[in-house]
């Protein structure tokens, strides 16, 4: 893995280490009722109950814990060791692993251990720079094999404009600023680009819908900021 790619691990480690030490909450760490609890019914009917479900980019494990209540075996993975330590401390009953999807050998080793797996991934792909996305997508395909279901939520093209408007109206969002200060540069990945990365001719779309990514940022109106997003569930053809 080249040093440019390893910067993701450094950035997220810095973020989660500071978040844990300062007892802060991540901008995306919303309650499951606004995230995995509303996503799961959209893809659960397609899951193989005997397969492992991997929560990619699990952070402190909030969504993993909910998924584990509804699926026999769930593993949370994150590129940050600090995030995984926090997840394990809060949830010793489930499995959490450090995993970098830009490290193909680590991904292949996990697939060899688990076999084909289902994947849940919430607002992760947009953080990967365009030049690294093919490697990331190839790792997803490795973990899925030929029988896994991929369910993901990704920021819609209108997300950046929405966030800019929030900053214009209410000033900098402290929790977003903490992310940007690590060097992470969020973008967006529309549905067609996501499908093209995975191989549009290789996957069947099982379900899709517009949605939002619910945040922990409370607007002056009393409502939480909700970033435009979309949901998709795919199966290998």
3D structure, described in words:
It contains 9 helices and 7 strands, in the order ααβαβαβαβαβαααββ. With 237 residues, the protein is α/β, with parallel strands linked by helices. The protein has one domain (3-236): 3-Layer(aba) Sandwich (Rossmann fold). A 7-stranded mixed sheet has the order 3-2-1-4-5-7-6, sandwiched between helices. Helix 1 crosses helix 4 and helix 5 packs parallel to helix 6. It starts with a helix and ends with a strand. The mean pLDDT is 91.
The shape is globular
Order of helices and strands: HHEHEHEHEHEHHHEE
Strand content: 15-25%
CATH superfamily: Vaccinia Virus protein VP39
Provide the residue-averaged pLDDT: 91
Summarize the structure.
The chain is an alpha/beta fold and 237 residues long. It is 40% helix and 23% strand.
Describe how the helices and strands are arranged:
Layout: H1 3-21, H2 36-43, E1 53-56, H3 62-68, E2 74-78, H4 81-90, E3 95-98, H5 104-114, E4 118-122, H6 133-144, E5 149-155, H7 159-170, H8 174-180, H9 191-198, E6 203-218, E7 224-236
Parallel strand pairs: 1-2, 1-4, 2-3, 4-5
Antiparallel strand pairs: 5-7, 6-7
């Amino acid at each position: 893995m080249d040093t440019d790619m390893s910067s993701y691990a450094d950035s997220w480690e810095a973020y989660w280490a500071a978040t844990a030490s300062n007892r802060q909450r991540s901008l995306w760490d919303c309650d499951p009722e606004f995230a995995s609890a509303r996503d799961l019914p959209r893809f659960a009917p397609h899951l193989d109950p005997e397969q492992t479900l991997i929560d990619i980019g699990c952070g402190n494990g909030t969504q993993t814990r909910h998924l584990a209540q509804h699926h026999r075996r769930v593993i949370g993975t994150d590129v940050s060791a600090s995030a995984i330590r926090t997840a394990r401390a809060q949830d010793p009953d489930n499995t959490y692993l450090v995993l970098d999807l830009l490290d193909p050998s680590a991904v292949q080793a996990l697939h060899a251990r688990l076999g084909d797996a289902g994947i849940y991934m919430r607002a992760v792909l947009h953080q990967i720079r365009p030049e690294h996305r093919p490697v990331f997508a190839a790792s997803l395909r490795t973990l899925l094999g030929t029988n896994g279901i991929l369910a993901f939520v990704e920021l819609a093209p209108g997300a950046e404009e929405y966030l800019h408007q929030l900053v214009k109206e209410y000033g900098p969002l402290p929790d977003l600023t903490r992310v940007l200060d690590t060097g992470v540069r969020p973008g967006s990945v529309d549905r067609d680009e996501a499908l093209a990365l995975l191989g549009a001719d290789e996957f069947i779309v099982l379900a899709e819908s517009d949605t939002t990514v619910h945040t922990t940022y409370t607007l002056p109106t009393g409502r939480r900021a909700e970033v435009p997003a979309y949901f998709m569930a795919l199966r290998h053809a």
